[in-house]
Amino acid sequence: MKAGENEGATLRHDYVVREWLGPIEVPGKLEKTVALQADWKAGDLGVAAFVQDGPTLLQATALAGCIR
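-> C-alpha cells emitted (68 positions)
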C-alpha cells in the first residue's frame, strides 16, 4: 500500500475496497463510473453491495465488474 493506515503493507486479503459509495436511501438508484488506476488488474475487479435496516444486514451480493 502506498498510503493510508496500511502504508508500506502488502495486503493478502481476498478483496480490497477501492471505493466506497453510500449510504443510498431506499428507494434509490445509483450509476457510478470509476476511473481505473494503471496498477489495478481489471479482470480481478468486482462490485459488492449490501442492504441494511439499521444495524440488521438484510441482503448482500457480489458480482464481477463491468469493464468497458
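Residues 1-68 form one domain.
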